[in-house]
Write a structure and sequence with these properties.
Chains A, B: This is Isoaspartyl peptidase/L-asparaginase. Two copies of one chain form a homodimer. Chain A has helices at residues 16-38, 43-56, 100-110, 118-127, 141-151, 157-161, 220-225, 228-237, 242-256, and strands at residues 4-8, 76-82, 87-94, 115-117, 167-172, 178-184, 205-208, 212-218, 261-266, 272-276, 283-287. By secondary structure, chain A is an alpha+beta fold. Chain A has one domain (4-287): Glutamine Phosphoribosylpyrophosphate, subunit 1, domain 1 (4-Layer Sandwich), CATH 3.60.20.30. In chain A, strands 4-3-2-6-5-1-11 form a seven-stranded mixed beta sheet. In chain A, α2 runs antiparallel to α3 (100-110) and α8 (228-237) packs across α9 (242-256).
């Protein structure tokens, strides 16, 4: 089977000054993930590598470059899921961790659990020998400025939010296994401890060889409301193509909430789709 | 429409010494929730009241009586969802809170978010004027003994776990609105910061007037793996009765993991089902 990886850098519009960096970042991430696949690596290794690449890239709202919470700190969520066996791992509200997606993978592989949060996730990171980075290292000037602007009395954080979003990837490897990974800094100026769709299995991502893999991006609370990733795969299980399934689920989300968002899905046969409401997205893909 | 409430006190076997207290507790909770419905209250008020009643009852693994984490502390998750508008609120890994279900309801009503975790959830509780209770107040002698036994080298925490489970309720009010609520102390001797199915929308519960309401109980990681609550309602949307939908979803869960569990679901027309794998459950219901 020819391997495929589809990588996204968040739903919503892209401001001009970010466009070049974002496009280069998703292409780089797609190529890095695809290199894993070409060398015979698994889908789950590939999506982890692609998301790790975007977490390290300050252009995206994940890892370094994440938006800040109400207190001016980075707090991140991430999930990874293997469609071969439905195993998954996730972390929520983690700080001072360079690559939440790697920590999520360790939750999946080294614990009996699927989601570790906040303080406990940090204790686990210590046990795994993952060093904490100074919180400042994850904060870009852009994030700080946005946070300050959002504190102004006439600010419109929701409007601002629309140029940012979760990063993620879906992949199919040469053995026909699918996987997804999603990582985010969440919503600008969110309450401390707010967990969005990304850490919740079925909302921020889902992968099952029998149907496909999906990673979602956009307004987390709207995505959670309809458990978007799982909904798309239900539609695919009923025989819809990835494109029709994604559009049907996104239309339903639009009807039930005012949230914006998008999704990226693939199925074992190699077919994939990237669909979104309202705004364009930054997207990269590689196909064998 | 005649109101209905179905209340559960956890999947799994019930040890003899707990049987009487558990049965009395679910009946009391069902009656308290039903009183809300009979007085013209909403389904969401009724499920909150029923779950609050079981959180206050030391016989159940929620609120006072919760199992302890690896450090010997109570850490709880809870979710509430209104089928009328798909609004929901949840908290994860909260300590020193007598009624996590009330905090979840406040997340739903007083924030733009749907899930607050750990430290941030406590800050929010303070803002809402919810007093912290001493951690010891939530710990029963039984929980402490179980925790200690699980620390012994030849212990079998998973076997022990089977006599405990999440508590929850589903209801239909006189206007035909459905709602669900679920609350839990999680898994005995879990890692600090472990979040289970209860806090994850679609896994621990889901409610939608167009299909129905579900609350789940059992081994959290197995429930999350299949996003159980949403899966049951998806089957009901396809025309299955609550009973057949629940059995189909639970059989699928059994096939994909070794976890035990159960679920409680109802639909707008008033039909309801309580189904479980392997073990009997404590269950109460009232119907107008």
């Amino acid at each position: 089977m020819k391997p495929v990886i589809v990588v996204h850098g968040g739903a919503g519009r892209i401001f001009k000054e970010r466009e070049e960096g974002c496009r280069a970042g998703v292409v780089r991430a797609a190529l890095q993930g695809y290199t894993v696949l070409k060398q015979g690596g698994s889908a789950i290794d590939a999506v982890e590598e692609a998301v790790r690449s975007m977490e390290d890239d300050p252009h995206f709202n994940a890892g370094c470059g994440s938006v800040l919470n109400e207190k001016g700190e980075v707090e991140m969520d991430a999930i990874i899921m293997d469609g071969k066996n439905l195993n998954s791992g996730a972390v929520s509200a983690v700080k001072c961790i360079a690559n939440p997606i790697k920590l999520a993978r360790l939750v999946m592989e080294k614990t009996k659990h699927m989601l570790l949060t906040d303080h406990g996730a940090h204790l686990f990171a210590q046990t795994m020998g993952i060093p904490e980075v100074p919180g400042e290292k994850l904060i870009t000037q852009r994030s700080r400025e946005r946070w300050k602007k959002n504190l102004e009395p006439d600010s419109n954080p929701e409007e601002f939010q629309k140029d940012l979003g979760t990063v993620g990837a879906v992949a199919i490897d040469s053995e026909g296994n699918v996987a997804c990974a999603t990582s985010t800094g969440g919503l600008s100026n969110k309450l401390i401890g707010r967990v969005g769709d990304t850490a919740c299995i079925g909302s921020g991502g889902y992968a099952d060889n029998h149907s496909g893999a999906t990673s979602t991006t956009g307004h987390g609370e709207s995505i959670m409301k309809v458990v978007l990733a799982r909904l798309i795969l239900y539609h695919m299980e009923q025989g819809m193509s990835p494109e029709v399934a994604a559009d049907t689920a996104l239309d339903y989300m639009k009807d039930t909430s005012r949230g914006f968002g998008g999704c990226y899905c693939c199925q074992q046969a190699g077919e994939w789709a990237a669909r979104f409401l309202h705004q364009a997205d930054v997207l990269g893909y590689c196909r064998g």
